[in-house]
């Protein structure tokens, strides 16, 4: 077998696709025989080219699991010895790492069975070798073995920690330092014991030192690993950080504002600050770190993100999360610095800083509500001024902030309706759809808690909102309908003159004629319900808002709402009868893809279950059904005997 297998391995690495396919089929057939193990071991040790040796190791890692129990003790010893030789003698780093991966798999079965008692001794010796390659591969093995035989290391945990700390301080080799850092991450992830975790506090200065050097040399992936380690330490209930929190914050802020780094690296750094604000905010307060953090995070709100970047990684979004978390936990330390930032930059010549100034105020309004109420005149002066800014992004941020104020600064904000509402009514006619949408949201939040003060403004409000409802695209109709519902709830009986026209328009939006695409689109995280009497609707939110609106009107009109039941009940039943739209996505991909060896390295005989990648419930339909069900109850409550024809269908 060894000779034929060698030819097949060489053939598989050829550029000719037909030749590769033939070789792959024959390799899969030969790999079912346990004798493939010694054959692969032979090629791992003796093949002339590194690519063939690496391919042999990749195949061996996949196949040895199924064949290990069938091998004789002598052959098992031969395999183990050959793997150790490959790790210590092999000149090619990729082959060494591939061999280390095979050791990790074999150890999973051999060590617990007592078949490899000298493995740990070998690793300790190798990690202290004078040769850099040996130290590096030993640390790589410590990392991978933690996942398979981590419990075996427990009696040696103190020795391992001392070894890892020494290797992280290895001045002669950056590769060894990086490998040690990765090993620390693996052990920390494996360790649950609080006393053992506490010992990792001593590693923080070395982790920071390695990370800074890696950032300087362009190895950002290593810095990301360091942030993941800090994440583990921060979330631990044990007091791990101590005075090191200052150094961690300083390093994280340096990375956060370094625009030369990848967005993913900066995001990890910002996320660490966010976790500290969430879990260790008292430590931030103790070490006087809140203002330094805000001095970096507030300007990051003004940073223009690359449109090609993932929005979730954008620095402005991530920094807003940090500011919000700080405001929720340390409002007295956050409000004045943010207000100062907003006051200074609201008149900036840089439109992004004007946008950032009002965004920051909106972000902190929930956490700093008490303090903001005391300075409401000053805050509103900044935000309402921004609502008239010539730049649409600034106006959009201002309308967002007003919506946040309306939600979190009740009831004090309502006393300013004479200055706020005229600005919002101008904003809902803005040239920007984004500004319009956010202004509808702000108007809905603001009007919801108004009382009789809204009555003199009804004609003007409803004229603007009805025009917007009739002439806007779907996303604006959703938010506009929400605003109309809030106006109706606040106006109560005074809304009666507008009910007929609104209900007729709602009926137009609610007629459902086709629903066959629901399941397929739900699997793509979208719901598409098309053909609404000439109006194409891509999401179910509009029907949800409409049911909510009908519920509000039924409460206002009471038994006089009965006249509308014949028209609204079919629409409610249509929503109640929709499929929930739940979906399960199966991930059938193989994660083995080393140097394009994925096809031949997959274990075809394994009875692997397909991996469930995502189980999701499409809450758009569920929310719509919930709103329709609530509407049914309110219709029955308020229309009384007029509801008599519908209970059987409702049930």
Shape type: elongated
Strand order of the largest sheet: 1-2
Radius of gyration: 32 Å
Distance between the termini: 71 Å
- Unreliably modeled segments: 512-538, 582-594, 602-618
Beta content: under 5%
Number of DSSP helical runs: 34
> Could you give the count of β-strands?
4
Summary keywords:
651 residues; mainly alpha; two-stranded antiparallel sheet; two-stranded antiparallel ribbon; 4 strands; 3% strand; elongated
Structural account:
This protein is mainly α. It has a domain at about 555-650. The chain is about 70% helix and about 5% strand. The protein has helices at about 1-10, 15-30, 35-45, 50-65, 75-90, 95-110, 120-125, 130-150, 155-170, 175-190, 195-200, 205-215, 220-235, 245-255, 265-280, 280-285, 290-300, 315-330, 330-345, 350-365, 370-375, 375-385, 390-410, 415-425, 435-445, 460-470, 475-490, 495-510, 520, 540-555, 565-575, 600, 620-640, 645-650, and strands at about 530, 535, 585, 610-615. The strands form 2 sheets. It has a two-stranded antiparallel ribbon. It has a two-stranded antiparallel ribbon with strand order 3-4. A hairpin with a 2-residue loop joins strand 1 and strand 2. Helix 5 runs antiparallel to helix 6. It is elongated and about 95 Å long. Residues about 510-540, about 580-595 and about 600-620 have low confidence and may be disordered. Keywords: Cytoplasm, Nucleus, Protein transport, Repeat, Transport. One of its GO terms (molecular function) is small GTPase binding.
